[in-house]
Specification:
two-stranded antiparallel ribbon; mainly alpha; 2 strands; binds fe (ii) ion; single chain; about 190 residues
Length: about 190
Amino acid sequence: MNHPRVLTRKESMRILAEYGRDDSWTIHCFAVAEAAVRVGDVIANNRPIDCSFLWSAALLHDIGRYITHDPLLHGVEGYKLLSMLKYEKEAYVCAAHILFGLNAADAYQLGLPARDFVPRSIEEKLVPLVDYLIEYDQPTTLDSRFSSLRERNNGNSFFLTGLDRAQESARQFMKEIEEEIGESVENIVACQ
Ligand SMILES: [Fe+2]
């Protein structure tokens, strides 16, 4: 049986350094990883959470940007790279962070295997949520991040339709977490 390799913090940083080559987009990856773990640490007061996986998956969620900055295809390239390196769990997050999840038909259309890539665990859902709360390396709100994504991708109708769904999924998940922890996730992300 094939077991996925466990990705250490050190190895995830090595992969980001090798493929990111200090390009400016890697700053965003660090900001998302740090903020995701800050939120994860608060959630950990109530239930178990794998902050090591969360950190590595968040750090590498945009690794596909070494090939393309296309708002959809960078997730596909990240999935391909990390699958090739046998880091299946983190590869899944690269694909599933796109639009807060892709159904099998959309995944297949983008060049992924024809199955759902939808964030399922708390860690898998925190990566796209926190990604949507950080613009480059600065904390923002869900509403302003989605407005800025809409402006930047004006004309990309597939992406824009998916963005409405993504915003609703992110909003609902953030509400669930906030009910659980009794704090604002946007505030936790903003407290650097
Ligand atoms: Fe991304």
